[in-house]
Specification:
The complex is a heterodimer. By secondary structure, chain A is mainly α. Chain A has a four-stranded mixed β-sheet with strand order 2-1-3-4, sandwiched between helices. In chain B, 41% of the residues lie in helices and 25% in strands. In chain B, a hairpin with a 2-residue loop joins strand 9 and strand 10. The longest helix of chain B has 21 residues. The chains are: A mainly alpha, B alpha/beta. At the A-B interface, helix 1 and helix 7 of A face helix 2 and helix 3 of B.
């Protein structure tokens, strides 16, 4: 009867409670990925509802055909504006997300003489990324030219992001970023919140007067949270796959995701319990965990590529354990491989942080008892 | 671990939190097999003392011997001897009654081959056999309380600590709880009880310690403690017609030279010990004056009086009144059930 069997008993308790609340736990794990993938994952295909200003300086049959084509065949939501100045103002105030200016030179289209100019707001980069090819193709078609080779098509601006390139989609990118977030929220809630409620309800006292090793209370909780974190990760992954994300590495990739989820949870449960040993109120704890969880998720590039994050946040990104977890999930799901040295580094880092937090939380747990 | 050792032997126990002395040098010996009550106003040091007995707090100085063993040296052995039931009902609502019991059986390191039989026994004792596999959260307050009691007894402790065990219970469950406590005690379990219901301590406890500001003001049997207040008896009359209560008080004053206090329809006064015979004269006089009374009672000073005398502050009035009415109802309830 030692630390292990005591830990196992408490692990069983946590898992039984988890099982009793299975539906709530599934909903909690599912709701974030569901909405984030539904909303953000579809951003690059929703240009059809985005208002776009059109300024026609050419005013010839070809230009009218071009506008007609955009509106009828491609469902672009066009707003006709008489001059470029007004249109730019509308773009600035957010009334439209892009401006298509048909220059007087249209239907002439060549790399030298651009017949069509597109201005867009950088806040809607993914919308425009979807819109630009449509504008391009339609302009070529309406001008009556035979479509030239792609590189000679006069596109005014081309946005390309390496992350979206290749076989992968933005949805996969998002799903890989959401998994660590779901996992840390599972950890912050499962670990810390239950610790606070157990203290309030008197369960903790009931455990402490039994002849168990005190550390078993921490260890049992940490391991059960790890399992719950992995469970949350699988639910997030299932939702991602249902909405079109993929795992480039296949089945072994799923195993890697579970390992990462488990390690991340252990680290964050340690952190959660450090907070929980100081914050005694559930509502205060909820605010704390949100304030810690969300920024770490953003800083780790969960929703946007790290390259497009503002530079001031990069120091946070560097020390954020989620950065390294996300690096593995992205590698697994998007690239299909992780460079060996990177993998070793990431895993060692996650394990190290987990152990440090665990050690501190055990020390703090003991010190709060007196 | 001899049987002659006191169940709990506390010597010069001190606990300080920073500058604040919660417990300031308590000496206390709780005998094997007694029901020992610890009474005190809020913040008197009751819970701190209890927590040190349970090993939840480390004493600043002094020793606590449980059956002759010290917590620090014999942690696991000592802890298995102790059981605790708190004022909160600590059952895990998401788990079934059986799961609740099994977890604590495991945490108390009950031998594997005994776990199942102990759980069955506990379920029978708590009258929860039919609800064994239902979530405890769906139980009524009384059922949860019964589950809690058998759960805290699953390790079969020799010493049971009850921290305000009947707070928040309805009358029926409270009487049931008292019966259970007495039953456990008859089976040889030493019971240490804190309560805010003075009447409860009076009914249940063999001995009571009254503590205040971290030190013991008095220890003794309830009767001994009541002697502290005085040797008189309390006479309590309840007027049939509340309007006539002052007239009754006036009669006591004029005919018997007794200073009476009137509260609504209730008249109370103190009769000296050697003048008990006065009671018949009083009832006779009342009858002649056609001052009808609904009830006449003569009793020893209550622990309430003792408490006020020793600590200078009463327990919360509502609590003790509550307990008085609870007791009378309980006796009615008990006789009704049999």
């Amino acid at each position: 009867m030692g630390l292990l069997s005591d830990s196992y008993t408490l692990f069983t308790r946590e898992m039984l409670i988890f099982k009793a609340n299975l539906r709530t736990n599934i909903v909690r794990s599912a709701i974030f990925p569901l909405f984030i993938i539904l909303i953000f994952g579809n951003i690059n295909t929703t240009y059809k509802n985005t208002p776009v200003a059109i300024v026609n300086y050419a005013n010839n049959p070809q230009s009218l055909a071009f506008i007609n084509d955009l509106q009828i065949n491609n469902d672009v939501n066009l707003v006709t504006v008489t001059n470029q100045q007004n249109a730019l103002q509308m773009l600035q105030t957010g009334q439209v997300q892009a401006i298509i200016v048909i220059l007087p030179t249209y239907p002439t289209l060549s790399p030298g003489v651009k017949g069509v100019q597109v201005y867009y707001s950088n806040t809607q980069v993914s919308v425009v990324a979807a819109l630009l090819p449509v504008v391009n193709a339609t302009a070529v078609q309406a001008s009556g030219l035979v479509a030239p080779k792609p590189q000679t098509v006069p596109v005014s601006m081309v946005q390309s992001d390496a992350v979206y390139a290749g076989q992968s989609s933005y949805k996969t990118f998002l799903a890989a970023g959401i998994i660590p977030m779901v996992v840390i929220f599972s950890a912050l809630f499962a670990g810390g919140l239950s610790m606070i409620t157990d203290r309030q309800m008197g369960n903790l006292k009931a455990f402490l007067i039994t002849p168990i090793n005190k550390n078993a209370i921490i260890i049992g909780r940490v391991i059960s949270s790890g399992v719950q974190g992995a469970f949350s990760a699988l639910i997030a992954l299932a939702i991602g796959i249902a909405f079109g994300a993929g795992v480039a590495m296949g089945t072994i990739g799923v195993v890697w995701l579970i390992v990462v989820a488990f390690l991340v949870t252990i680290g964050f449960v340690g952190l959660a319990m450090i907070i929980a040993s100081r914050v005694k109120r559930v509502d205060a704890y909820a605010i704390f965990s949100q304030a810690i969880g969300l920024p770490l998720w953003y800083a780790a590039g969960g929703i946007t590529p790290i390259a497009s994050l503002p530079s001031w946040i990069l120091p946070v990104t560097t020390i954020d354990p989620l950065t390294y977890a996300t690096q593995i999930t992205r590698g697994v799901m998007m690239q299909g491989f992780i460079p060996f040295n990177e993998l070793v580094f990431d895993l060692a880092l996650l394990t190290g942080i987990g152990l440090v937090f665990l050690f501190i939380s055990m020390r703090m747990f003991k010190s709060t008892l007196d | 671990m001899s049987d002659h050792a006191a169940a709990v032997e506390i010597t010069r126990l001190v606990k300080k939190f920073g500058d604040f002395t919660a417990v300031g040098g308590i000496n206390l010996s709780i005998k094997q097999g007694e029901i020992f009550g610890i009474l005190g106003p809020n913040g008197a040091g009751k819970t701190t003392t209890i927590n040190m007995i349970l090993g939840l707090l480390t004493p600043t100085s002094g020793t606590i011997l449980i059956n002759g063993m010290e917590m620090r040296r014999h942690g696991a052995n000592v802890k298995s001897l102790l059981g605790l039931m708190t004022q909160e009902t600590v059952v895990e609502g998401d788990l079934t009654a059986r799961q609740n019991l099994r977890i604590f059986a495991d945490l108390y390191h009950v031998p594997k081959d005994e776990v199942d039989s102990r759980i069955e026994l506990a379920l029978q004792e708590a009258d929860l056999v039919d609800f064994a596999d239902k979530q405890a959260g769906t139980f009524s307050g009384g059922m949860q309380r019964r589950l809690e009691l058998v759960k805290s007894m699953i390790q079969q402790p020799k010493i049971l600590v009850l921290d305000e065990p009947t707070t928040g219970l309805d009358v029926q469950n409270r009487s049931g709880m008292w019966t259970r406590i007495k039953e456990l005690n008859r089976n040889g379990v030493t019971v240490i009880l804190t309560t805010q219901y003075l009447e409860e301590a009076d009914v249940l406890c063999d001995r009571i310690a009254i503590i205040d500001h971290g030190s013991i003001k008095a220890i003794g049997t309830p009767t001994e403690l009541k002697r502290i207040v005085g040797k008189g008896r309390i006479l309590e009359l309840i007027a049939e017609d509340p309007a006539k209560a002052p007239a009754i008080a006036a009669l006591l004053k004029s005919h018997f030279r007794l200073a009476a206090e009137v509260k609504g329809d209730r008249i109370t006064t103190v009769i000296e010990e050697n003048r008990i015979d006065i009671l018949t004269s009083i009832t006779g006089a009342l009858d002649r004056k056609k001052l009808d009374v609904a009830s006449v009672s003569l009793h020893l000073p209550t622990l309430d009086d003792v408490f006020i005398k020793l600590t200078g502050a009463g327990m919360r009035d509502t609590a003790s009144n509550d307990a008085v009415s609870a007791r009378s109802n309980i006796f009615r309830g008990m006789s009704g059930r049999r």
